[in-house]
Design brief:
single chain, 421 residues, mainly alpha, two-stranded antiparallel ribbon, 19 helices, 5% strand, elongated, membrane, transmembrane helix
């Protein structure tokens, strides 16, 4: 082949090459690769999709178990009916309990209203009393009962118990006095006395505060340093609250005394009224105990005369002899006796028994002689007589060392034991 022919063929090939479409475009190449990958995945996809298969098997298993339970349950007719009956009874039980609780709430409202009337207090004043606080506490207890996981019978018993506590809490002193009967056993008398004293200890200070808010009402009835109760209780154009309170004071055995030094009315228990209304039903020993709860010693000084302090000592000794051996009051009375006797024969910093010149004060000597002469059969009387004799040896001048100890008081029951041996 000559050179000319070769060149001509090469020229034709070059023209043919230029007419061919371009195959190296980037987008076409990427598209081709993706199509190839998809075809590869389709070829490798497994015939079984295991997650779907596992889900199907789980559903099948659960269905089988439920079917078995239903089948077995069908062999015991009546179970479903029993559950239905139990469910039907539950609302009835709840209704019974709720009804009892509503009764407790109604009881509280009723007894509260009655107590307010008996005491002569308005609602604001009554809410400060321990009576109301205790009753509210018992009502809260009742309201908490449905939340407890116990049988209905026990819950109903607790509600009844709560009602009894509400009743007891809202019993006013006048109701307690009228409930006393002749021949009350000593154990019951002590329980009654304890409860009565607790309620009076709560109420007396409240009466004092309220009374002295109405000073302009009672002040005109002060005569010769004393409150004239007859004129005070006579019909007067008093404020309504004061009038009601006066009625409550009378009915609940509250005694009023005018404190001239402080220019106020003070309250205490009216034992004469208590004795009159109860028909002397309460044993004397418990009446005496209540009388001794009104202390005559304040900040180391007697609030009464020395002779009256001597009378109180004798009363305390008598109590220690007459109270039952198992009485809860014995320790309290014994402490009071020892403390009072100490101040009676030793004096105190603010109320010494010797004057500045060292001689026994006349009023103290007179009180000692009174006790020794009036109560010779009492251990206190005998002990005070010994004190007098010792002082007489020094012409009633203060000895160099003067310390007197209280006598040991033996109860009548213990004395009987000693005498029988």
């Amino acid at each position: 082949m000559d050179d000319k022919r070769f060149d001509k063929r090469m020229e034709l090939l070059d023209r043919s090459y230029k007419k061919m479409p371009v195959q190296t475009d980037a987008s076409d190449i990427i598209k081709a690769i993706r199509e190839e990958q998809n075809q590869s995945v389709k070829k490798r996809r497994p015939l079984i999709h295991w997650p779907y298969a596992a889900s199907f098997l789980g559903v099948l298993l659960i269905g089988t178990v439920l079917a078995l339970q239903l089948t077995m349950g069908g062999d015991k007719p009546g179970d479903g009916e029993g559950q239905s009956r139990q469910a039907a009874k539950q609302p009835h039980k709840n209704e019974t309990l709720q009804a009892e609780m509503k009764d407790a709430e109604a009881l509280y409202d009723l007894r509260k209203t009655q107590a307010m009337e008996r005491l002569g207090f308005n609602e604001a004043t009554f809410s400060t009393t321990q009576l109301d606080k205790d009753a509210k506490g018992h009502l809260v207890y009742v309201e908490s009962i449905p939340k407890r996981d116990y049988p209905l019978g026990e819950k109903l018993d607790w509600v009844d118990r709560g009602k009894d506590w509400i009743e007891e809490s809202l019993r006013t002193p006048d109701m307690m006095i009228r409930s006393l009967k002749d021949g009350i056993p000593m154990t019951e008398a002590e329980v009654w006395t304890k409860e009565f004293m607790e309620k009076q200890t709560d109420l007396l200070p409240i009466y004092e505060v309220k009374l002295n808010e109405y000073k302009e009402a009672w002040e005109p009835h002060i005569e010769n340093g004393e409150i004239n109760m007859k004129s005070l209780n006579a019909p007067q154009p008093y404020p309504g609250e004061f009038r009601k309170m006066l009625d409550g004071i009378t009915n609940n055995a509250v005694q009023l005394t005018y404190n001239e030094k402080e220019d106020i009315l003070e309250t205490s228990i009216n034992f004469e009224y208590l004795d009159m209304i109860s028909g002397s039903a309460l044993p004397d020993v418990y009446v005496s105990y209540m009388k001794t709860r009104q202390s005559i010693l304040k900040a180391g000084e007697f609030t009464t005369s020395w002779k009256e302090a001597g009378d109180r000592l004798i009363l305390l000794e008598q109590l220690l002899k007459e109270l039952p051996e198992d009485s809860a009051f014995r320790n309290e009375v014994s402490r009071d006796f020892d403390l009072l006797y100490h101040y009676f024969v030793n004096g105190g910093v603010d109320q010494p028994i010797f004057s500045e010149n060292g001689r026994l004060k006349p009023e103290v000597q007179e009180a000692y002689e009174y006790v020794a002469k009036t109560y010779p059969s009492y251990e206190t009387g005998g002990k005070v007589k010994e004190v007098l004799e010792e002082l007489s040896e020094s012409d009633y001048m203060e000895p160099e060392r003067w310390v007197q100890n209280p006598p040991v008081i033996i109860s009548s029951e213990t004395e009987d034991i000693y005498e029988s041996q």
